[in-house]
Amino acid sequence: MGVGVNTLAVDDASVYWSETFDGGGTIRKCAVAGCECQPTTVVETTSRSSPIALASGMVYFGSSDDAGSPVIAECPVSGCTQPTPVTGSLDSNSPLEILADPDNVYWTDVASTTIFRCPTTGCGQGTVFAQGSAGTFALDATNVYWTGAGPAQGSGYAPGRVSSCPKSGCTQPTIVAQGPMSNPLNVPTSGWSGPLAVDSTSVYWEDRGTYGSGDGTGNGSLMRCAIAGCAAPTVLAQGLPLPDLIAADGSHVYWSGSHVGVQKCDVAGCAQGSTVAPTDPSGITAFVVDATSVYWTTGWGALMKAPK
Q1: Do strands 284-289 and 274-277 pair parallel, antiparallel, or not at all (unpaired)?
Q2: Residue 155 DSSP label
Q3: In 3-state terms, what secondary structure has residue 186?
Q4: Strand 127-131 vs strand 114-119: parallel, antiparallel, or unpaired?
Q5: Residue 124 gets which letter from DSSP?
Q6: Number of domains composing the chain
Q7: Which of 210, 49, 191 is nearest to 134 (CA)?
Q8: What would the pLDDT profile of 222-280 be if each residue is shown by its tens digit?
Q9: What is the C-alpha separation between 290 and 121, in angstroms, rounded?
């Protein structure tokens, strides 16, 4: 693997990732059973730091058009020599996060707190799906969920929120969970929103906290709320060191953070997470889960795998 692995994605056959190098990037894949350090190149890209997403046998990623303007492009997971643009020019606003389903591609960009949407059949610049303090986001079969901040209060706090909207669209998002007016830290706030994950019943997110110690402790938390909403989030685990990656599979929630590998917690809660992947001196840069395994990349450019 090359230096600068940005994001991971997995399907039934392969693990995919984007690599960064001077002047561009590459999307590669390796069979879930392993590829003996000989990954397959899916496509060369013009983006040096591209998020990726998988849907219906296609990989979606950030690229650029002939004029050098950012676009979102697609390529079959089997590989291609020339990617197909899905969007027109994004006006110099490169995608920060990309998710996809069979019908649409969704993304946020580096210049706004907006979620955009474009049909997988193609569009111009995409349409605004949700706007206003949208942080990280997640999809399930029917809804889009995102973290962000509500209106600022007299105390000076902008209470953090988790919001949702049907994929068909909405004029007013549903507030799934909201932090207290005086201390919004149990729901991420705008500017440092923690990652988000969703399963068939619940949405999960991380309050990153403010510190992580070398002994694997900190003041971050792992939170849960029913996808229909809750009066107060459930705290699944506390004392986490700056958690910054998250995934869920219906029975467990997985996370990583400062000075820890990949940890897991039962969706009902846990006194302390159990280790799935060990700590790496170079750090864990990304991870994904499938039905049986956890896959992760390290700061040294290694792709690793362990049973869940």
Answers
A1: unpaired
A2: T
A3: helix
A4: antiparallel
A5: S
A6: 2
A7: 191
A8: 889 999 999 888 989 888 877 778 999 999 999 987 778 899 999 999 977 899 999 88
A9: 27
Which of 100, 131, 162 terminates a domain? The answer is: 131
Q: What is the rounded end-to-end Cα distance, in angstroms, of the chain?
A: 23
Which residue's entry shows tokens 């869920």? 248
**What is the value of pTM for the model shown?**
0.90
CA distance 256 to 194: 12
Instruction: Report residue 100 as tokens.
Output: 């996809």
Answer whether residue 143 is part of any domain: no
Structure tokens at 143: 């809804």
Closest to 197 measured CA to CA, from 276, 265, 260: 265
90 residue type, one letter: L
The CA distance from 107 to 128, in Å, is: 10
Whose tokens are 């580096």? That residue is 110
Positive or negative: CA dihedral 81, 85, 89, 95: negative
Give the span between the Cα atoms of 242 and 229, in whole angstroms.
Answer: 25
Phi then psi for 257, rounded to 5 degrees?
-170, -165
Both structure tokens of 232 = 């107060």
Q: Which of 263, 225, 271 is nearest to 245 (CA)?
A: 263
CATH number where 90 lies? 2.120.10.30
Residues 92, 207 within the same domain:
no
- β-bridge partners, 130: 115
Q: Are residues 227 and 123 in the same domain?
A: no
Residue 134 to residue 193: CA distance in whole angstroms: 9
Using DSSP, state whether 185 is helix, strand or coil: helix
With vertex at residue 298, the alpha carbon angle to CA 135 and CA 93, rounded to the nearest 5 degrees, is 35
**What is the mean predicted confidence (pLDDT) over 211-219?**
68
Instruction: Give me the domain span that covers residue 20.
Output: 1-131
Residue of 304, 199, 197, 281 lying closest to 243 (CA atoms): 197
Q: Are residues 50 and 166 in the same domain?
A: no
8-state DSSP, 184: G
